[in-house]
Amino acid sequence: MKKLYLAYGSNMNLEQMAYRCPTARLQGSATLEGFKLTFRGPHGGAVANIEADPAGNVPVLLWEIQAADEAALDRYEGFPILYRKQTVSVEFNGQCRKVMAYVMTPGRRIGVPSTYYFNIIRDGYRSAGFKSDTLTFAAYGSTVVE
Fold first, then answer.
1. Would you say 74 and 96 are in contact if contact means Cβ atoms under 8 Å apart?
2. In angstroms, rounded to a whole number, what is the distance separating the alpha carbons of residues 49 and 92?
3. Could you give the CA distance from residue 88 to residue 100 in angstroms, rounded to a whole number?
4. 50: nearest Cα among 62, 65, 60, 64
5. So what's the architecture of 2-129 in CATH?
6. Mind listing the pLDDT tens digit for each residue in 13-37?
7. Whole-model pTM?
8. Domain residues of the chain, as ranges?
């Protein structure tokens, strides 16, 4: 069983994904339209989330995953308590693709991520060739790139 998985947070980090999901294969990058990136959870420990926003867009990576990869991601993402699975549509290679994404369950406030977690995601943005404006704004309310 193979499926496309959309990563927008720490699973954009290539080293982290290679360790966590060794059979996952990077398919490429895209922009998820109609969503915004947020961080929810305790201050200094908030984690990435995507939320519907008609004016928003989020840089993402698409991975082809197998059943063992999905099981590892379920554990890492705290499925089904912290995150649920949602099918979203993204333009990829000139086609609209329906892909699986983890979206946070309700009940957590906007927060600030740890520096360590932020840097893991920023490394993923850099390796994919994305500017970190969206990430920095979501985390700190500023588009100043570090």
1. no
2. 21
3. 6
4. 60
5. Roll (3.10)
6. 999 999 999 999 999 999 999 999 9
7. 0.95
8. 2-129
Contacts 24+ apart (CB under 8 A), 131-138: 134/37, 134/57, 134/58, 134/59, 135/37, 135/59, 138/36, 138/37, 138/38, 138/39, 138/48
CB atoms within 10 A of CB 45: 12
Q: Can you read off the two tokens belonging to residue 34? A: 């109609």
81: its two tokens:
């308590």
Whole-angstrom distance, CA of residue 91 vs CA of residue 108: 29
Residue 82 and residue 136: Cα distance in Å, rounded?
Answer: 23
Instruction: Report the SS3 class of residue 117.
Output: helix
Q: What is the length of the chain?
A: 146
